[in-house]
Specification:
It is a single chain. The protein is α+β, with helices and mostly antiparallel strands. Helix content is about 50%, strand content about 15%. The protein contains 26 helices and 18 strands. Strands 2, 4, 5, 8, 9, 10 and 11 form a seven-stranded mixed β-sheet that branches. It has a seven-stranded mixed β-sheet with strand order 13-12-16-15-14-17-18. A four-stranded antiparallel β-sheet has the order 1-3-7-6, with no helix packed on it. Helix 3 runs antiparallel to helix 4 and helix 4 packs antiparallel against helix 5. The radius of gyration is 31 Å and the shape is globular. The N terminus is likely disordered.
Length: about 675
């Protein structure tokens, strides 16, 4: 009750906390007007961001219906960070969020969030505007902040649904004309928290909206949603939808139905024709952001599914280039994955063949990052321009590695290095695929003096490939012909990383009985685990169709080579769950092509049937899957998946094998 009373006292000005001279945040002038500049002051020393050397700010602007975000150019004056911002003509509410250099952020406590109603002159007097009250409630709501700015408030500064209902009441009271749009938010809240007898309240608002001379299409769409999802009245919902299609034949709902028709069509050419018809009938500039769950969920999906047959089966890329400008940002990453990454991974194209398409998709992604047109598409998150550029880099960081590799392999060295530099900070030297390509591009661009230091820093995190280690060894042998390369390599590893790494592995050790396997190798010889006691046995369950399995093999090769002369260690690569009936031909072919020194066993029953015999007996759930069995025949370690660093995998296996060898000798 006390919280409610204080909120009521604050409602008119929404400035009680922010405008205190002793407080951390204030607007100047205190009454913020549309179309006028406002100065924002933030004293970080009085906030959770105390101690941050740099403060960045984002301002969120509500126009009464929706929100957008913009960057604040913060300048430090004495101990206070200051920014000036030009308030747009159409703006009812401002709210600010500040970020420190440690990743922390601050939008104010419950009773002093950094927001203010924007006033407009009415009959010579500054007045709050329609939409401000409800959106101030939504902004801080625990349940419905996704209608404003998701995640604006920290949990202890959010309001519950009862307080939100109070702000709904204020909006009704001061702006009765808000009822058309407000009814939906009120209905959502009542539906979540009501007693189940609130349908009569829904009916009153629906009657009001349907009685308007010209209700907005989105208001009618929301009426249909209330009927369908809250009142469970499909018949009434269909009646309202029919009314919408009659009044708005080329509107939001008609477009949704066209999107759904494209999505559901299965015949490739018919699907493509429906997509082209939809784009002509509903120009994208008329629908800059999605306004329904259907468009938000399915619009991005229909592009690739419509063009897949042309691109993958017919190798016709013309349509890809023609439609790229229309593809929403959310789908561009899928294009890069399917057109570039996937085809390269499976050897379907060469780097030279895929380069034009990779360049086109990558260029389109960069255009979206700069233009910011897709900042709100398929997401309720509100990004400022600066945040959006960083978000695009983050979203596409994995594709940046591939694109850097494409550019390297096709001789575009400066462009490749530029791409890799743009995402370098995201990886921190801890991803071997990035490190290898980045080192190659450094060398190709003539930065030879930077290559070896970078490779050495990669070893610190166990994030290196065999090729990187070979480059280091070549350099080491040149400088130290008789030196101990393994000692040099181990000396490069970070002590903190090694301690954490080893502690994690020791904690993962188990001690379980396991049924001894009896399997046939590629030469038809039977391998019986029960006859291998006294050895540490490393098992790797894999398949030729499994990309992560094959990606892990360079690391496993490193591990195998470390114990090539040790008779007390045995490695077996168990080919399992193969879907090729000729796997006894394809598996040896793959091993020979890659020149892997692996002893492969076939995971089949003695009669040659049941591919996946011990995969099922050992209750393995997915591949690649690795197991280590000690000298007594006990299962001591079991691990699923591959996390992308060959050297780390080799060191992981080596540490566990050495530990078990020493354990037996104690």
């Amino acid at each position: 009750m006390k919280k409610l009373l204080v909120l009521i006292l604050c409602v008119c000005g929404l400035t009680a906390y922010a405008q205190e001279k002793q407080g951390p945040f204030q607007f100047e002038p205190s009454v913020v007007m549309v179309g006028e500049p406002v100065t924002l002051s933030y004293n970080s020393a009085l906030t959770p961001l105390a101690g941050s050397q740099t403060i960045t700010g984002v301002i969120y602007l509500c126009d009464g219906d929706d929100w957008r975000a913009d960057d604040l150019d913060m300048v430090k004056r004495d101990s206070v960070w200051v920014a000036t911002y030009q308030v747009p003509e159409k703006c009812v509410l401002l709210a600010c969020k500040f970020y420190g250099d440690n990743g922390e952020w601050d939008s104010g406590p419950l009773m002093g969030q950094y927001g203010v109603f924007v006033s407009k002159l009415v009959d010579g007097e500054a007045k709050s505007q329609q939409g401000a009250y409800i959106h101030w409630g939504l902004l801080r709501s625990k349940s419905f902040d996704y209608f404003a700015v998701p995640g604006f408030s920290k949990e202890d500064a959010q309001i519950d649904d009862n307080v939100l209902q109070m702000w709904v009441g204020y909006e009704y009271r001061f702006f009765p004309e808000s009822r058309e749009t407000l009814s939906y938010y009120a209905a959502k809240n009542l539906n979540k928290n009501g007693s189940g007898e609130q349908n009569h309240l829904f009916e009153q608002d629906i009657e009001y909206i349907l009685g308007l001379e010209a209700p907005a299409e989105l208001s009618l769409i929301r009426v249909a949603e209330i009927y369908k999802d809250m009142m469970k009245n499909e018949e009434k919902a269909k009646e309202v939808e029919a009314l919408i299609l009659e009044r708005f034949p080329d509107g939001i709902l008609a477009r949704d139905k066209a999107i759904w028709a494209v999505y559901m069509e299965r015949e490739p050419e018919a699907k493509l024709q429906l997509l082209e018809d939809m784009l002509r009938r509903f120009p994208q500039e008329k629908f800059p952001v999605p306004q329904t769950d259907l468009s938000r969920s399915f619009y991005g999906r229909i592009f690739w599914s419509s063009m897949q047959d042309r691109i993958v089966n017919k190798k016709d890329y013309k349509l890809l280039h023609e439609l790229l400008p229309f593809v929403p940002y959310s789908a561009l990453a899928e294009y890069y994955y399917r057109v570039v990454q996937l085809q390269l991974k499976h050897g379907m194209v060469t780097y030279e063949q895929v380069r034009p398409h990779a360049d086109a998709i990558w260029a389109e992604i960069q255009k979206r990052a700069e233009r910011g047109e897709d900042r709100y598409y398929n997401s309720r998150v509100r990004f400022s321009p600066r945040q959006w550029r960083e978000q695009v880099k983050w979203d596409t960081r994995g594709y940046a590695i591939t694109h850097g590799k494409v550019l390297y392999e096709t001789g575009a060295y400066p462009e490749g290095l530029e791409v890799m530099e743009s995402v370098k900070d995201f990886f921190g030297g801890k991803v071997s695929d990035f490190n290898e390509t980045y080192a190659q591009l450094l060398a190709a661009n003539g930065y030879d003096q930077l290559v070896i230091p970078f490779l050495e820093s990669s070893i610190a995190h166990d994030a290196a490939t065999p090729e990187m280690i070979a480059t280091l060894e070549k350099d080491f042998r040149k400088k130290n012909p008789s030196g101990d390369f393994e000692a040099y390599l181990n000396g490069l590893r970070s002590a903190d990383h090694v301690a954490e790494f080893e502690q994690h592995l020791l904690a993962s050790l188990i001690d379980q009985d396991i049924e001894p396997f009896v399997l046939e190798d590629m030469n038809g010889k039977t391998v019986d685990m029960s006859k291998l006691k006294g050895k540490v046995i490393v098992l790797d369950f894999w398949a030729t169709w499994c990309s992560p399995c094959k990606a892990a093999m360079p690391g496993m090769k490193m591990a195998v080579e470390r114990y090539a002369e040790n008779p007390d260690v045995a490695f077996y690569f168990i080919s399992t769950c193969e879907n090729d009936k000729n796997f006894k031909t394809t598996v040896p072919k793959f091993i020979k092509e890659k020149n892997y020194p692996f002893e492969v066993l076939y995971d089949v029953s003695p009669d040659g049937k049941g591919n996946g015999l011990y995969y099922n007996k050992y209750k393995i759930n997915g591949i690649p899957h690795k197991m280590i069995i000690d000298q007594k025949g006990k299962l001591r370690w079991s691990s699923n998946g591959y996390f992308g660093n060959p050297l780390e995998l080799a060191n992981e296996i080596s540490f566990l094998v050495d530990y078990l060898l020493k354990e037996e000798n104690k």
